[in-house]
Amino acid sequence: MKHITTLFICSLLFVTQTNFGQITQEDPEITKMISEIKADNLEITVKKLVSFGTRHTLSDTKSKTRGIGAAQQWVKSEFEKYALESGGRLTSIIDYFTVKADGKRIATDSQLGNVMATLKGTDPSDNRVLIISGHLDSRVTDVMDAKSDAPGANDDGSGVAAMMELAKIMSKRAFPYSIIFVAVTGEEQGLYGARHLAEVAKKGNWNIIAMLNNDMIGNSLSSGTKLRDNTQVRVFSEATPYLETNEEAKMRVLTNRDNDSPSRQLARYIKATTNQYVAQLDINLVYRNDRFLRGGDHTPFSQNGFTAIRFCEMNENFDHQHQDLRTEDNIKYGDLPEFMDFEYLRKVAASNLATLANLAGAPNAPQNVGIEVKDLTNFSTLTWTASKTTNVYGYQILIRETSDNSWQKAVFVKDTKATIPYSKDNFLFAVQAIDELGHASLPVFPIPIR
Questions:
Q1: How much is the average pLDDT of 228-245?
Q2: What predicted TM-score, i.e. pTM, was given to this entire model?
Q3: For the chain, how big is the Rg over CA atoms in Å?
């Protein structure tokens, strides 16, 4: 027993208990970027988006002041301003595509467009991609009403404003791999913009590490119950990957990894990173793809095999969501800026930035992560293949009890194999690669090695 204990101690550099498993070291540059996010700037952007009257997917595309076309051109013009400070790394386009009439929410064949800005990575050998999105289109009570004013301040001016604020701030910095900032359209008509982009990414074999969808992240007061909470935001993540193969399903059941899909790992990562960098905001992990029987722009990415989640405010206000502008029984209806909480929006934007910046600086995730099962023991031995990137400082083995939602402990090692005094019968594990500044890859769940 003494020999085993000595081996164990020598195999570990140190053991530390952290906020849900990630190293507590903070990158001062990420802290600085977060300090540059201003609630006032977010409010200005939202009000500008509202000024286009309606941004309905099927609204005017020719006017320079009203409708979806004017809004698209303005977002692109803002991206072009950010590009001037990016050293030529930020480029933008409006990716137009045609949607055929569907007999439902697309009455006639229509041209739609996603406004995209790509911040190109500095490492030409690194093909990883991160995506952050909000949907530009808006609506009123009748989803086919393309004429009435549909301000769409919170749904989803909030998501677009956060995405644009991050594009402005992050484009001034350099990251090893690429980040795509996108205002999709067609969400209210059937997730058309996100589906188009996801299919383009699938066809092009994009190496998307994570897709963050922000949809309604600027309201802190619920309708009906009148609950007010600007200290929590929901992150939705799928349980079972849409494209799971039969072999993957068998392994999921065998290893009891029903709560450890790639999207769940991303959601936990967001929670840990937010706890580390953003004061007075907690991530409420909601273990379903989206709200009950509903979906969002992350869903087509999940359906195409990518790791994707949705940020959404903790308490929705249905008086200000999908409503005609009116006053009834002294209640003012409509999605207007006056009903938003811009300090709350700032914090959610900060959570997005902390997540993207950490991932964008992190090494590649370890490969071939496995757990040895040849011996009956109260220790657990994990092995993996070293990350392909050169900025690896070490690895973290994340540990949690089977009944716990989030990682509870982290063991840091320099090698690609470690034996730890936690039984695989009682705990779940994952492994992530980290660099010297504490930027961590997404965790990888181990498979049995016989």
A1: 95
A2: 0.94
A3: 23
